[in-house]
């Protein structure tokens, strides 16, 4: 195990940095965390990138390892499937798993971040210093240049082991940029997002199905909504930045109202603050960051969004970052020093982070486009029949990503084979229950079982 004599500095007390510092403290390390924002437990702050988020098996497992899963689940709302809202007509329901036990959970980002910071500090080994912005890092030397946001003064932290958990725009990552062996790509999605609110109904009731993630798929754009504990829903509108239907085209209250009336009439009726919120709230960017290496010797390591920011359409960014913390913790037990630990961590995680990044982009297309398509609905139905008819033999991408902890890369590859089998069996079908189970058994045992055995 790496020595706990080392000075450790975590940059960023977001979701991943807060959880990481807790993990490190439990291993006996003393940790200083530098966070550029004020303390959100004392000052009303926008919690960050979204108001609520979906936590699933990987994130929950990481919380369980440090004894926090139960408390987190008390504040979470299970979402058992998707409710699809067409422009007109009946809502459609698509369960996420083989039954209701497989669900994802909606959780307030602000609550979770505050909770994790408090739990980290409660170990007595973590000190979080707020309004401390890292402006530069010497990743090889373990030196950080830090600006105090209150006084403007700059100081240096030296001889420290640096954990860069400062999010998708990471200053620690940027400081690694000039290194000859370092490569990074940053792809910004052509879409932005805007959050809107469906308030609670009378007596704090939910105005739509509570235990679901709601989707209004509309081809090149979409609206989604996740439930909150107080009976409200946070809606997120994903829209191209430019083009005929885009943020650029919605410049006036009238244009916005007409657009919602035409494309999301049922949602419009539930969002009384549509115009005010739309024009007052910021429009968010989404980016995929891939970079390597994530480490410099035994001095600096990137984790969470700083190493692998992904677009939010699989609900896995935080889950993946939390899994980083659990994996690193496991390695601390078996590795001799920081350098070995960091190197083993990158070997384990990089390919998996790349896989979920790609799946997240693909899921965007599925959510905005295919969820409303009858062919897609049929294939989802067939998939469910197969999951139930061949338990332990047939597996598919969504459950592997959201309800298991198999490496993302494996989920990606198995998911592709399973998807091919479903498409083949769905050809010519009109009802999922008519799927040919004998043909299915042959395909599954011929293609999927050997692959699973190899891994
Ligand atoms: P961040 O949450 O970005 O935290 C970084 C922290 O570092 C911040 O506190 C910041 O103030 C601080 N910091 C930044 N720069 C500096 C600096 N120079 N010095 C000091 N401190 C600094 N993931 C899911 O798993 N499920 C979801 O449902 C989900 N939904 C999402 C919806 C949207 C719209 C978006 C945009 C993302 C969503 N994500 C979701 C992804 C998730 O938000 C991120 O993966 C997660 O926040 C990453 O955590 P992090 O701690 O690595 O980074």
UniProtKB/TrEMBL annotation:
EC assignment: 1.14.13.9
Keyword hit for Oxidoreductase: yes
Example of a GO MF term: monooxygenase activity
Pathway stated in the Swiss-Prot or TrEMBL entry: Cofactor biosynthesis; NAD(+) biosynthesis; quinolinate from L-kynurenine: step 1/3
Catalytic activity: L-kynurenine + NADPH + O2 + H(+) = 3-hydroxy-L-kynurenine + NADP(+) + H2O
Keywords linked to the UniProt accession: FAD, Flavoprotein, Monooxygenase, NADP, Oxidoreductase, Pyridine nucleotide biosynthesis
FAD-binding domain ranges (all copies): 8-328
Keyword Cell inner membrane: no
Cofactor dependence: FAD
Family that this chain belongs to: Belongs to the aromatic-ring hydroxylase family. KMO subfamily.
Database matches in PANTHER family: KYNURENINE 3-MONOOXYGENASE
Functional description taken from the UniProt entry: Catalyzes the hydroxylation of L-kynurenine (L-Kyn) to form 3-hydroxy-L-kynurenine (L-3OHKyn). Required for synthesis of quinolinic acid.
Protein's name according to its UniProt entry: Kynurenine 3-monooxygenase
Organism: Corallococcus soli
């Amino acid at each position: 195990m790496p020595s706990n004599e080392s000075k450790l500095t975590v940059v960023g007390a977001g979701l991943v940095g807060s959880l990481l510092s807790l993990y490190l403290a439990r291993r006996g390390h003393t940790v200083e965390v530098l966070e550029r924002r004020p303390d959100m437990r004392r000052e009303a702050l926008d919690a960050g990138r979204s108001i609520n988020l979906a936590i699933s098996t990987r994130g929950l497992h990481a919380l369980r390892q440090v004894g926090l899963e139960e408390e987190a689940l008390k504040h979470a709302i299970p979402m058992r499937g998707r409710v699809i809202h067409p422009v007109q007509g009946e809502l459609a329901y698509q369960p996420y798993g083989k039954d209701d036990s497989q669900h994802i959970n909606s959780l307030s980002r602000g609550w979770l971040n505050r909770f994790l910071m408090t739990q980290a500090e409660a170990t007595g080994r973590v000190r979080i210093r707020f309004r401390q912005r890292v402006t530069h890092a010497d990743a090889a030397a373990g030196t950080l240049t830090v600006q105090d946001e209150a006084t403007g003064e700059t100081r240096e932290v030296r001889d420290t082991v640096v954990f860069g958990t400062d999010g998708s725009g990471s200053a620690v990552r940027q400081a690694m940029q000039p290194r000859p062996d370092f490569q990074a790509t940053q792809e910004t999605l052509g879409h932005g997002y805007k959050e809107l609110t469906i308030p609670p109904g009378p007596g704090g009731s939910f105005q739509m199905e509570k235990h679901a993630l709601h989707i209004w798929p509309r081809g090149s754009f979409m609206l989604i909504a996740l439930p909150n504990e107080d009976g409200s829903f946070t809606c997120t509108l994903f829209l191209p930045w430019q083009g005929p239907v885009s943020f650029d085209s919605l410049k006036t209250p009238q244009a916005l109202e007409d657009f919602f009336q035409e494309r999301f009439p049922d949602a419009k009726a539930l969002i009384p603050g549509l115009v005010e919120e739309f024009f007052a709230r910021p429009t968010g960017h989404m980016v995929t960051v891939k970079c390597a290496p994530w480490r410099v010797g035994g001095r600096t390591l990137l984790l969470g969004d700083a190493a692998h920011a992904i677009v939010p359409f699989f609900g896995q960014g935080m889950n993946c970052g939390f899994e980083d913390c659990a994996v690193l913790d496991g390695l601390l037990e078996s590795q001799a020093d920081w350098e070995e630990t960091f190197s083993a961590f990158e070997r384990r995680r990089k390919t998996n982070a790349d896989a979920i990044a790609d799946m997240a982009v693909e899921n965007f297309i599925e959510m905005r486009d295919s969820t409303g398509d009858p062919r897609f609905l049929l294939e989802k139905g067939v998939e469910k029949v197969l999951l139930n008819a061949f338990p332990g033999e047939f597996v598919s991408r969504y459950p592997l990503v959201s309800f298991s902890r198999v490496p993302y890369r494996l989920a990606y590859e198995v998911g592709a084979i399973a998807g091919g089998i479903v498409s083949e069996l769905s050809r010519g079908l009109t009802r999922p229950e008519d799927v040919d189970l004998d043909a299915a058994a042959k395909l599954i045992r011929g293609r999927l079982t050997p692959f699973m055995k190899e891994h």
